[in-house]
Amino acid sequence: MQTHLQSVMPESANFMRQVELNSTISGSIALGRFQRLAELLASDQGEVEASLKFGTCAGYACVKGSVTGNLKLECQRCLQPMAFEINSQFKFAFIDSEDEIELIPDEFEPYLIEGDEQSIVDIFEDELLLSLPMVAVHETACSEYMTRHEQQLKAEKEAAHPFAALKALKTEQDDSIN
Hints:
Elements: E1 4-8, E2 12-13, H1 15-20, E3 24-30, H2 35-38, E4 47-57, E5 60-74, E6 81-95, E7 109-112, E8 118-119, H3 120-131, H4 144-159, H5 164-177
């Protein structure tokens, strides 16, 4: 029997019961529900799409999950908001004690089951936190300082090649002949 729940993601679920049902839980999670992540975001507006597929893998109760979305981080160069795309997949094997960690296959991360209900929001928040860059910066020069720095590096590189100007003249001359 396979069940599929879709809509706004519930706060928690009994993961072992979900394994028995071979269920899939998917939906959206508002960024405002992630308290620890919100501290690192430029804005907690928006949501991520998330999915958990429960079952048995390699003899272990497991879950395969994914989370996708766009986060607004603060660029550490210009201190302006920047978009950061998240597209993360993960696989957890459920264990009852830390003694089982060494037994699970390498393709899985261990997930210690404690109690009847486990937090769905926490599992996704942890994954989002692990997916963040150590230092958020725009891919291109985003500040006046960085623009000047890139121009200076380019000028130094050109100055290091004294025959670059002659090559440019030769190229211009060849183009005018054709």
